[in-house]
Predict the structure.
Amino acid sequence: MNEHLIIPENIREILTGIQNISAHLAELPLQAHPKLPQFERSIRVLDIDAKSKQQFIYFNYEQVLKDKETGEEISISLPTPQWVIYKETWSYLRDHYNQPIELPLAEPLENLATDKVKVSSYLYMLWLLKNNKVGFTELLTSYLQDFVKTHKEQLDRLS
């Protein structure tokens, strides 16, 4: 494509990186599968379908197993529970250490004086990305951690 150009080494490295990048959006490591500990496990995000008018995001992904010794991908179909962030889904507002922000209650209760700040997950994701508060992969990692906690039993099944 660029054969007609004299390409400096630093630009050549960038072009090589672009040509060699994987086609999936992200691959995020998971803990080893409890019944298949001989494999490394990850979630590979294949597609994201975001609907701004309806305010939801659907993540299409697959669980991937790789042999720890050879790195070879193993073709086993593992469960993929639906991963959707709806308009009604909420998250905790987080500080720059990625910890939920906790504030005093306007009217403290007998056994509760503080609570975490809740925000719409969909709008919070957009705000984080649009205001350069977090990178795309970091955002996916954060939401994936919550998703895995919620769906651990389903993800750990073999069929």
